[in-house]
TrEMBL record:
It comes from Glycine soja. It holds the Pfam family Aminotran_4. The keyword Transferase applies. GO terms for cellular component: cytoplasm. NCBIfam families: ilvE_II, PRK13357.1. It catalyses: L-isoleucine + 2-oxoglutarate = (S)-3-methyl-2-oxopentanoate + L-glutamate; L-leucine + 2-oxoglutarate = 4-methyl-2-oxopentanoate + L-glutamate; L-valine + 2-oxoglutarate = 3-methyl-2-oxobutanoate + L-glutamate. The lineage of its organism: Eukaryota, Viridiplantae, Streptophyta, Embryophyta, Tracheophyta. The keyword Transferase applies. Pathway: Amino-acid biosynthesis; L-isoleucine biosynthesis; L-isoleucine from 2-oxobutanoate: step 4/4; Amino-acid biosynthesis; L-valine biosynthesis; L-valine from pyruvate: step 4/4; Amino-acid biosynthesis; L-leucine biosynthesis; L-leucine from 3-methyl-2-oxobutanoate: step 4/4. Gene3D superfamilies: 3.30.470.10, D-amino Acid Aminotransferase, subunit A, domain 2 (3.20.10.10). Its EC number is 2.6.1.42. Its cofactor is pyridoxal 5'-phosphate. The modification N6-(pyridoxal phosphate)lysine is found at K205. Keywords: Amino-acid biosynthesis, Aminotransferase, Branched-chain amino acid biosynthesis, Pyridoxal phosphate, Transferase. This is Branched-chain-amino-acid aminotransferase.
Length: 358
């Protein structure tokens, strides 16, 4: 999706009362969505097969040149990550658990036979690119700067095999909400997101996990649904995740979410929400969740970096539609408020999840 034309003039800057420089977006009057707003810079670091990443640099944001026979283009040798930088009320910029993204990228890189940046290289690169694009971090309460690290085989290779060269690239975009309002899910019972069990790639952020959901997603959206919920490919009886988020169901005082078994993406928001819910006194169970259990739940919500925490208003499975509790009284509202509070520096960060960019 492209940004609306009334977003502002990206070339000139403006200064806030606090003396901060901002890109000339109409931050007060325009509600950002989840679409690309190009920023000033991106980060690029390259390494040859068999080597280690060593030195990256900040370069102007723009198109990249790539061989037609690059590993990423031909054989899908690529991963992405997603994390957000938030501006606090007192003007600081915070990242949320960037080391978790670094570790997840490393696990994915091992699976796809790619070298990966070290934890420190990853986190430092993220800090550098956020600082370089500081004027694009929205004012407190107006959104966040979405940071998108990519790791891809960019070397040319005609035969099937690991590419001879790799690129770690990070670009950013200011964003607002991914979805507006509570979601209406359609359960997909013919197409699957990932191979069940530990042998597939559902548990890593491989670029190849996303386009295969487009057919189901496009059809569901054409029929008025907001998103698709996928089932396990082995039996079709258990819920897995939606196109770009993990899912949870709530029954009485218990919360259930599919366990991380190689198929489910180990979401950083998922992991954080589990901890927050336990701290708030809820029982959280990570285990297989059947379709019947979901249909009998009181509440359902989903989590993801882009999505944060979003309540699910309804699920439609074949001919059955079930409505769930939503609104300010829903548990998901409480969990979201706590998480966003920590991310934006309004709630005390007792777990040292946030990292200051300075
Ligand atoms: C994220 O939440 O960062 C994701 O990876 C979802 C993305 C595909 C929009």
């Amino acid at each position: 999706m492209s940004p609306p034309s009334n977003l502002g003039n990206f070339k000139d800057g403006s200064e806030s009362a606090a003396g901060e420089n901002y890109a000339d977006i109409n931050w007060d009057n325009y509600e950002l969505g989840f679409y690309l707003v190009p920023t000033d810079y991106m980060y690029v670091m390259k390494c040859a097969k068999g080597d280690k990443f060593s030195q990256g640099s900040i370069v102007p944001y723009g198109n990249i040149e790539i061989s037609p026979s690059a590993g990423i283009l031909n054989y899908g040798q690529g991963l992405f990550e997603g994390l957000k930088a938030y501006r606090t009320e007192d003007g600081r910029i915070l990242l949320f658990r960037p080391d978790e993204n670094a570790q997840r990228m490393k696990r994915g890189a091992d699976r796809l036979c790619m070298p990966s940046p070290s934890n420190d290289q990853f986190v430092n690169a993220v800090k550098q690119i956020v600082l370089a694009n500081k004027r694009w971090v929205p004012p407190s309460g107006k959104g966040s700067l979405y940071v998108r690290p990519l790791l891809m085989g960019t070397g040319a290779s005609l035969g099937v095999g690991p590419a001879p060269e790799y690129t770690f690239l990070i670009y950013c975009s200011p964003v607002g909400s991914y979805h507006k309002g509570a979601l209406n899910f359609k359960v997909e019972d013919k197409l699957y997101r990932a191979i069940s069990g530990s042998g597939g790639t559902g548990g890593i952020k491989s670029v190849t996990n996303y386009a295969p959901v487009y057919t189901a997603m496009t059809e569901a959206k054409a029929n008025g649904f907001s998103d698709v919920l996928f089932l396990d490919s082995a039996t079709g009886k258990y819920i897995e995740e939606a196109t770009a988020c993990n899912v949870f169901v709530v029954k009485d005082n218990s919360i259930f979410t599919p366990e991380i078994d190689g198929t489910i993406l180990p979401g950083i928001t998922r992991k954080s929400i589990i901890e927050i819910a336990i701290d708030l006194g809820y029982q959280v169970m990570e285990r297989a969740v059947s379709v019947e259990e979901m249909l009998g739940a009181d509440e359902m919500f989903c989590t993801g970096t882009a999505m944060v925490v979003n309540s699910v208003a309804s699920v439609t499975y074949k001919e059955t539609r079930v409505d769930y509790k939503t609104g300010p009284e829903a548990l998901s509202a409480k969990l979201r408020a706590t998480l966003v509070g920590i991310q934006t520096g309004c709630v005390e960060d007792k777990k040292s999840w946030t990292v200051l960019v300075d």
